[in-house]
């Protein structure tokens, strides 16, 4: 876990710096400079590109992680870079053809309630091309256990460019068409930066040399990317379906309100994203070596550590939710998404507490079972969103996320328990749940203190201090206690100098 901890800490620091930039952007700059419908457009525009990107990648990002140990013995990785470049081009061309065939039905779906998106749908494919290579070059770097620089590109550079584009649009230096093109350009620049960084680590060659790779591995590689493509389409539809349904059945303004609420909860996922990027290759390696002890350890530790971090962040976010909207420009508009924040936060927490269950399955010989789980998740998510959004609006989308993700992850846990007898939850989970429940209740007994900013600082300090104290005293997580001890020793050494 040493590599995991070091890279996770560095990556988390970068990510939280990016979150700070993103927070300033989406909590202050964006609500001040852009009306809700333009915010909604930006959300559905990029989400559509994310979905298309996954399809065009043809499952290659997951396959890189799973099969990289078979390529890593050669300095040039047997021309793996050529696969990374050429396979997505094939996927992109196929996607473009299908999109052309179904262009009119897609447009008709959005033209009544979200005509702005319908008119600019064609730009989604262009954005998809650059987003595709941004992802692939980043994953390639992750396979080399180098996550920090790609994180800087995604979390900092991309967000700074976004701020520049928003301000230029607000000042009317650029019009809306240039605004859309600028979003595309942001991803193009980021992809090129990742490519440059990758070229500094490994020799890049478009020549593919797979002679040293066993035929069975090559065959499994092809089968795997096709499988991941099928499964991933469902997963990506699930993650974006709420935005698409809100845009098509309500309007872009409501999508904008939902997107602000959604972003507030993404702060919970940041440590998890960094952690997963490092742990995923280790899970693949453990399966390759049939090391069940390491697999079980990764499963349990990922569960409790993510639960503590995610639960602690959700506690502080919900405790300060009224302060957040009070300090936000036009916060009275976006406060309509208050309970969406809580619901999406609970959904994300349910996903985090179940640990690396998905990664364990997808890297195992049982990976094909994911088809059944994803079909279930897609069906439940689409059905619930279609039923609840017309009745409860954006809160309905939040409820759908809680039910769909909660039941899906529970099924994954049961499957792993049945197949390889590992389980992520235990007494530490119960202790963490008790701590969080107590502090959620305590928050309601803390009176409002004079001003939203002052209240946020004091409230956060009280709750975070008590949370840290109880977690360390009860020894809820060995890793957290060890990290606290190491930081304390380093602080003492520094102060003695």
Structure description:
The chain has a domain at 8-247. It contains 22 helices and no strands. The chain has helices at residues 2-33, 36-57, 60-71, 80-101, 103-110, 115-119, 123-143, 148-170, 176-201, 215-249, 252-266, 270-288, 292-319, 321-327, 331-334, 338-353, 357-362, 370-392, 394-420, 427-443, 452-473, 478-496. Helix 2 (36-57) packs across helix 7 and helix 12 (270-288) runs antiparallel to helix 13 (292-319). The model has no long low-confidence stretch (mean pLDDT 84).
What is the strand content? under 5%
What is the helix/strand order? HHHHHHHHHHHHHHHHHHHHHH
Characterize the overall form: globular
Termini separation comes to 30 Å
The radius of gyration computed from the alpha-carbon positions, rounded to a whole number of angstroms, is: 23 Å
How is the main sheet built?
Answer: none
> What class would the helix/strand composition place it in?
mainly alpha
Portion of residues within helices: over 70%
Low-pLDDT residue spans: none
Task: Give the beta-strand count.
Answer: 0
Q: Count the DSSP helices.
A: 22
Overall residue-averaged pLDDT value: 84
């Amino acid at each position: 876990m040493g590599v995991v901890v070091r890279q996770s800490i560095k990556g988390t620091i970068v990510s939280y710096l990016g979150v700070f930039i993103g927070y300033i952007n989406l909590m202050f700059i964006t609500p001040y400079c852009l009306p809700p419908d333009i915010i909604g457009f930006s959300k559905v525009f990029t989400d559509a590109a994310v979905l298309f990107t996954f399809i065009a990648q043809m499952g290659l990002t997951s396959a890189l992680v799973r099969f990289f140990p078979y390529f890593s013995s050669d300095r040039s990785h047997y021309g793996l870079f050529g696969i990374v470049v050429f396979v997505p081009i094939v996927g992109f061309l196929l996607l473009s053809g299908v999109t052309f065939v179904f262009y009119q039905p897609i447009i008709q779906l959005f033209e009544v309630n979200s005509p702005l998106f319908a008119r600019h749908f064609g730009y989604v494919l262009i954005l998809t091309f650059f987003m595709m290579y941004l992802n692939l070059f980043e994953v390639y770097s992750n396979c080399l256990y180098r996550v920090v620089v790609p994180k800087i590109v995604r979390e900092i550079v991309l967000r700074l460019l976004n701020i520049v584009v928003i301000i230029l649009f607000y000042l009317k230096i650029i019009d809306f068409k240039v605004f859309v093109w600028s979003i595309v350009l942001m991803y193009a620049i980021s992809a090129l930066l990742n490519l440059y960084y990758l070229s500094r680590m490994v020799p890049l060659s478009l020549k593919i040399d797979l002679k040293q790779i066993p035929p069975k591995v090559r065959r499994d590689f092809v089968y795997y990317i096709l499988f991941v493509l099928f499964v991933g389409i469902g997963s990506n539809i699930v993650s974006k379906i709420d935005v698409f349904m809100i845009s098509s059945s309500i309007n872009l303004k409501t999508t904008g309100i939902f997107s602000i609420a959604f972003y507030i909860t993404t702060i919970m996922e940041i440590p998890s994203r960094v952690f997963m990027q490092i742990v995923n290759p280790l899970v693949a390696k453990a399966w390759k070596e049939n090391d069940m002890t390491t697999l079980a350890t990764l499963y349990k530790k990922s569960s409790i550590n993510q639960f503590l971090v995610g639960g602690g962040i959700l506690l502080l976010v919900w405790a300060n939710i009224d302060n957040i909207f009070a300090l936000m420009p036009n916060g009275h508009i976006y406060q309509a998404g208050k309970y969406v924040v809580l619901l999406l936060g609970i959904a994300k927490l349910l996903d985090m507490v179940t640990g690396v269950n998905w990664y364990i399955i997808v890297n195992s010989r049982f990976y094909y079972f994911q088809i059944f789980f994803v079909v279930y998740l897609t069906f439940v998510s689409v059905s619930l969103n279609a039923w609840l959004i017309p009745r409860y609006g954006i809160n309905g989308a939040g409820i759908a996320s809680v039910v769909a993700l909660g039941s899906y992850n529970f099924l994954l846990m049961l499957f792993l328990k049945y197949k390889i007898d590992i389980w992520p939850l235990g007494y530490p989970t119960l202790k963490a749940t008790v701590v969080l429940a107590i502090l959620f209740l305590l928050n309601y007994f803390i009176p409002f203190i004079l001003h939203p900013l002052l209240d946020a600082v004091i409230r956060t300090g009280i709750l975070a201090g008590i949370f840290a104290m109880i977690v360390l005293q009860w020894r809820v997580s060995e890793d957290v206690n060890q990290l606290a001890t190491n930081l304390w020793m380093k602080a003492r050494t520094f102060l003695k100098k």
